[in-house]
Amino acid sequence: MIVPLKLMSSNTTKMCVVLGVTGGIAVYKACEILRLLQKQGIDVYVVMTKNACKFVSPLTFETLSGHPVAVDTFERPATWEVEHIALAKRADLFLIAPATANIIGKMACGIADDMLSTTVMATRAPIMLAPAMNTGMWDNPATQQNLQTLASRGVHIVSPANGYLACGDTGAGKLEDVAVIAQRAMEVLFAKRDLEGVRVMVTAGPTREAIDPVRYISNRSSGKMGYAIARAAQMRGADVTLLTGPVSLSAPQGVRVVPFTTTQDLLDAALEYADAQDIIIQAAAPADYRAKEIAGQKIKKKDGEDMVLRLVENPDVAATIGKKKREDQVFVGFAAETNDVTAHAQGKLMKKNLDMIVANDVTAPGAGFDVNTNIVTLMTRDAMRTLPLMSKDDVAGCILDAVVSLRNEKNLKHP
Fold it and tell me: Do 29 and 175 contact (CB within 8 A), yes or no?
């Protein structure tokens, strides 16, 4: 069902979207996206790949947009300017819909061999992709790795829907509803800048506690939630410091990165940077215990004998920060639980002197580790709000909305 777009701004300055269109049966839906954006007062320029032109004629997009459509890098431009550079500079948002596995792979690897890939590489505008492809292509590890690479660089991904595909398959890969894509584009175009100049420290990922030179104690944290928060805060204007454990993610551009390995490393880095921050978000998953003694050599099997590993408790990073927190700072923690989620989270909220805790049941489908979605409950000392299943990027936005409200309340008390 097509739903009306929410008007994002009354700004009279006309914004510009450069719409990239790649070859796939969903090309015709790009015409609808163009019209929805125009109805919101957005000026749209179109860049098509040659394969896209086999599905819909450039004349269709020229008629709808009122502008020439760029296809060939070496075609003589209508005006004396380097066309792909001119389009790259003109964009307030670069939206590619539908985005094929081919253009996703090119962007991830830095390949610029046609008008669209060249133009998107040259732009400094925010980039959004709305993929559409066969389910097998979408699920392919290469595609998922490329998407993860692009997301880590700050590219917005509007994941495809599940449904009946043109090839006859049923599954993920169907272009998301055009109204959803247009709405997400509007949200990026009129993104909040409510953290302009605010200093934000985010911790992310697991810790590793050595047992011997080969083995260590760790957990399943991927760092995706913390990285999403850091990326969202940077987009909202914050000066972001990201303390990161060992993860397979690329740090968002424009973010200060401080690596850590052990829980003690995390605590040392957190204490070094915490005092200068306005907002601290402890999304990392530090190990509660470490080996009492670390073997100097790799531990060998002993003919079926049990191995006894003595553990000692690690320092509590959040509790230590909470004790030193200033009244004007906002401090947010996380509670990844498997049972009695609310009770455990409320206990941590008070014990660690948090202003808010983000609680989730990591056993719930679509939540927890190694997935791009989450289901969380935002808890303060006097309120609780459970969010539905959503992408971790969207969860990050909701967390920051709540943080901004808390900070505004603190600023009234501590001007």
Answer: yes
What confidence tens digit (pLDDT) does each residue in 349-407 have? Answer: 999 999 999 999 999 988 878 788 899 999 999 999 999 998 898 899 999 999 999 99
Name the pLDDT band for 152 (thresholds 50, 70, 90). confident
C-alpha to C-alpha distances, 100 to 22, 97, 222, 249, 324, nearest whole angstrom: 6, 8, 27, 23, 50
Selection from 101, 105, 111 nearest residue 149 by Cα: 105
- Rounded Cα distance between 68 and 70, Å, is 6
Q: Which residues contact 337 (CB under 8 A, 6 or more apart)?
A: 344, 345, 359, 360, 361, 362
Q: Does 160 score more than 70 pLDDT?
A: yes
* Domain interval for residue 311: 199-413
The predicted structure's pLDDT at residue 58:
95
Name the amino acid, one letter, at 31.
Answer: C
What's the average model confidence in pLDDT over 312-332? 97
Q: What percent of the chain has pLDDT over 70?
A: 93
Task: Give yes or no for a contact between 117 and 107, defined as CB atoms under 8 angstroms apart.
Answer: yes
Amino acid at the residue 240:
V
Can you read off the two tokens belonging to residue 115?
A: 């008008």
Residues 49 and 117 in one domain: yes
Burial of 168 (0-12, 13-18, 19+ CB in 10 A): exposed
If asked whether residues 210 and 179 sit together in one domain, one would say no
Residues 301 and 339 in one domain: yes
Domain annotation covers residue 8: no
Set 16, 53, 167, 398: catalytic member: 167
List the CATH number of the domain containing 140.
3.40.50.1950
Q: Is residue 4 part of a domain?
A: no
How many domains are contained in the chain? 2
167 noted as active-site residue: yes
Interhelix angle for 392-413 vs 224-235, to 10°? 60
